[in-house]
Amino acid sequence: MHILVLNVGSSSLKAAIIDPLNGQRMISLTAERLLDDPVAEFSDGSQVELKRTGHENALKSCLLALKDKLGDTEISGVGHRVVHGGEAFDRPVLLTDKVAMLIGEQSRLAPLHNPVNLRGIEIARELFPDHNHYAVFDTAFHQSMPRRAKTYALPKELMDKYGIRRYGFHGMSHQYVSRKAAEYLKDDLRNLRVISCHLGNGCSVAAIEFGRSVETSMGMTPLEGLVMGTRSGDLDPGIPTYLHDQAGLSLEEIDHLLNRQSGLAGLSGVGNDLRTILEAASNGNADCQLAVQVFTHRLRKYIGAYAAIMGGVDAIVFTGGIGENSKVIRHRAAQRLNFLGAIINEDANSILQLSEDQPVAEFSMRHSRVRLLAVKTDEQLAIARDCSKMIAKADEVNQLPQIPVAISARHIHLTRETLDTLYGEGHELKVRKWLSQPGQFAAEETVTVVGPRNQIERVRILGPLRSKDQVEISRTDEFFLGIDAPVRESGKVENTPGCKLIGPAGSVDIEDGVICAWRHIHMTPEDALRFGVQDRDVVEVSVGGAERSLTFGNVLIRVSEKYALEMHIDTDEGNAAEIQPGDTGVLMNTGSTGHLVKRKLSVVR
Ligand code: ADP
User: Is 245 among the residues known to form the active site?
Assistant: First the structure.
C-alpha cells in the first residue's frame, strides 16, 4: 500500500509517497520559498520547473510533477496534515465537503495555517479526484486533555463564544514518539507516564499519561510554551499592552515580533539555527550563551511541572531536529534530574546518533528509574498510518451486540487490615446484594468518608476484600469532601490522595486510594474480540439518540474472563445523560487511531 502525504505550509510544501507498513518512501518532495523564489526538489535529486507565478501555480506544478513521478504506482489515499482541528476534530477523518468546510471554520484559530492547508486540500482533490483524501490534525491527540488543563482563566462566556482554550499542537509527533518509546521499552504505553519534548523550529512538551495527552505546552495557538526558533513562548500577558503603549507597536507588529523575531533568533541575534547559536556560544558570544540557557531553563521547568502533574514519570523522550541531534541541549535539559529518578548517562548521550536503522536510543544510566530516550520522529509516517487505518476500517460491517449501562454510586473497597480496624478483628462482610460482575457484592456494612471540607456517611463497602483500599467518588463528592481526586481506572491508586475512614470500631487514615472512577466497560475476551477492542483501549460513547445526544469521551475498556458485559458511569454522568435503568449501548465503527481505538458507542433506549 502507498499513501501520498501532503503538508502544505504558507511558503513550503512537503510531500512523500509512503508505505505505511514499513515507512519506506517511494519518493519525497520538498518545495520552499513558494511565495517569492520557489525551488522544489525530489529525493532522487530531480527538480521541478517552477516559474515565479505565485503560490497556487507553484503548488499545482509540484503536485503535477509528483503525479508524473507516480507512474504506474497505485496510491490508496491522500493524507493531508491540517494544523488546527479546533473543537471539531479529535481524530483523523475522511475528507468530505463538510469536513473541508469545518476546517475552513477553524481558520480564525489558525489564520496563518488552516487557509493554506485548505487550499492545498482543494488543489490536491482536483488533481487526484478518484482517491479518498484524509485530514490528520496537529491538535487531535491533545483533545484528551482534562478541562483543567484546557481552560484559561478568562471570563467563561468570552471563551465559549470565541473558542478560546488550550488545544496543543505537534500531536502526531508526540503520539508517534511515545509509541516508539513504549515499543523500545517493551512495555504497553498504557502503563507509562511519558514526557515528550518535541524540539524543532517549533517546540512543545507533552505529558502523556497511560497513552493519553493530559498536558501540553502549546495553547490556543503554537505561540505558548517553550522558547522556539523564532517564537517567544510563554510571556507575561501584560507585555503586548506595554509594547503597544511604550514602543508604539501595532497589534500586527506585536504579532510579527512574537512569532517571527523572538525565541532563539531574538535572543541570540544570529538567527534561529541552534547549530550556529551553539557554535557562537562556545566561542564566547554572551547573547548566544544566554539564548541556550533560557531555552533549556524553560524546558526543565516544563519537565518538572509535567512530572508533578502526572505524579511521576517513567520516560522522558527528546525528538525533533534539536532533540534528536543536540547532545548539548539533551545534557542541559536532563542533568540534575536525579530527584525525579532520571539519571543521565553522559557517555551514551554524547555518542548518540539516530538513524533509519536506529530510530530510538537510550541515554540514561542502567540504575535510572526514569528512562531517557532520543527518538526520531516521523510525522509523515504517522499520517500515512492513520490513513491506512481509516482505509481498513471503512470496509467493516457493524453487527455488534448491545451493552447494558449501569450507574455506579460512590463506594469503597477495603483491605483485611482496614476492615479489622473499622469493624473489629476478623469481621466478615455480610452480602446485601450480589452485583452484576460475578463474585462482587454490595455489603451491609458502610463507612464514613472524611475529607478536609466535609464528610459523607454511609458509603457502601463492596466485597470481596482487596489488596488495596480504594474510595470511588463522583466529581460532586470530590468538591463536597474537598479532595482533588484524579480520574483513574480501578486498582491504579499510586499518587492519589488519601482520606479518613470511620467505622463502628475505629478509624483509619488511608494514605492514598481516593479516585474518581474512570468510566469503563467490562467485557470478556470473547466480547472484546467481537467489538474489535483490547483491554484498556479508550472508546467514545454517545448517549441519548439522534436529537439530544451527549457524548462521553474516554471510556475505558476492561477485559477479563471474570467480567460480564456492562458499562459503568458515575452518578454525575448518569444524571447528566438522564440514563434510566435498563438502558443499553451499541458499538459503531468510526476511524480508529491506533491503540486509542476511538469508536462510537451510542446508547439506545
Ligand atoms: P521543523 O520544526 O521545521 O521540522 P526540525 O525538527 O528540523 O524543524 O528542527 C530544526 C532545528 O533543529 C534547528 O534549530 C536546527 O538548528 C536544529 N538542529 C538540527 N541538527 C542539529 C544539531 N546537530 N545540533 C543542534 N541543533 C540541530
Answer: no
Ligand 1 neighbourhood includes 274 CB (under 6 angstroms): yes
Percent helix / strand / coil, the chain, rounded to 5: 35, 25, 40
Distance 202 CA to ligand 1 centre (A): 10
Rounded CA separation 243/239 (Å): 6
User: How many residues does this entry show for the chain?
Assistant: 605
H helices present in 151-205, as ranges = 156-162, 171-184
Ligand 1 atom at minimal distance to the Cα of residue 273 = 16
Residue range 66-105, pLDDT digits in tens:
999 888 889 999 999 999 999 889 889 999 999 999 999 9
How many angstroms does the Cα of residue 229 sit away from the middle of ligand 1?
9
CA dist 75 and 130 (Å) reads 10
> Quick check: CB of 229 below 6 Å from ligand 1?
yes
Superfamily of domain 3-137, CATH level 4: ATPase, nucleotide binding domain (3.30.420.40)
Q: How far is CA 203 from CA 198, 222, 321, 456, 509, in A?
A: 5, 9, 10, 46, 43
Q: For the segment 307-335, what is each residue's pLDDT rounded down to a tens digit? A: 999 999 999 999 999 999 999 999 999 99
Q: What is the pTM of this model?
A: 0.84
Q: Does domain 171-383 have CATH number 3.30.450.40?
A: no
Q: Are 536 and 556 in contact (CB under 8 A)?
A: yes
